[in-house]
């Protein structure tokens, strides 16, 4: 039976998350004000990797219904646990980490959106996997896709080279089980975020010229999302600023 100390810990954690959520939202509002944008046009996407399902449940209690994971193996267990903790919540799960083709069948069962699509072969694998998931009754809608743009060419961080980005988006757009929604990037290490996000903004504009409905621009994390908002980000992926420091053992 859960005793008072456990209940106190849950209450303390809820308070921590509520305070952090308020701070992050204040930063978003301030950044939008500085950029002359409506805060309603920027979605907060909590990155819950390495944090427990109970944190996701507490965020649900705070009316946050989106969560992002970076590894399928962690996500599968967490999605199942959250569905038990908050069965009526209808959480929208997003995949933001590098995705191997052999994980696409699993991801197609739990994700509403994959933000890290960076190759034609991955597009094909996700399209097949989503059809299988629909046929099996695991999902009833197309899988949302953001093509990941590489701004530094680092193969370890993933992403499609900018000159190939529109062609990759073309592949997504004709896939029967996928829905092209926009572009994602991770700001390069050791480079000024403003320059990177300005480059991404130009690439996203070119993509929208070819695909007008692909309006989502996922850019900016805990330390740089104000700069990303200044250059048009519509989705900021926030982990540390919302949930706290990650365990030292995480990667």
N-to-C series of helices and strands: HEHEHEHEHEEHEHEHEH
CATH class: Alpha Beta
CATH topology: TIM Barrel
> What is the domain tally?
1
Which outline best applies? globular
Gyration radius, rounded: 18 Å
| Amino- and carboxy-terminal Cα gap | 34 Å
Portion of residues in helices?
40-55%
Q: Are there runs of 5+ residues with pLDDT below 50, and where?
A: none
Beta-strand segment tally? 9
Largest sheet: 7 strands, parallel
Question: How would you summarize what this structure contains?
Answer:
This protein has 251 residues and is α/β, with parallel strands linked by helices.
Secondary structure: elements and pairs:
Layout: H1 4-35, E1 43-46, H2 53-61, E2 66-69, H3 72-85, E3 92-95, H4 104-110, E4 113-117, H5 120-135, E5 143-150, E6 160-161, H6 165-174, E7 178-185, H7 193-210, E8 216-218, H8 225-230, E9 235-238, H9 240-243
Helix pairs in contact: 2-3, 4-5, 6-7
Structure in words:
This protein is an alpha/beta fold. The protein has a single domain, classed as TIM Barrel, CATH 3.20.20.10. 46% of the residues lie in helices and 17% in strands. Helix 3 links the parallel strand 2 and strand 3. The longest helix has 32 residues. The protein starts with a helix and ends in an 8-residue tail after the last helix. 40% of the residues are buried. The mean pLDDT is 94.
Task: Provide key terms for this protein.
251 residues, alpha/beta, TIM Barrel, 7-stranded parallel sheet, 9 helices, 9 strands, 46% helix, globular
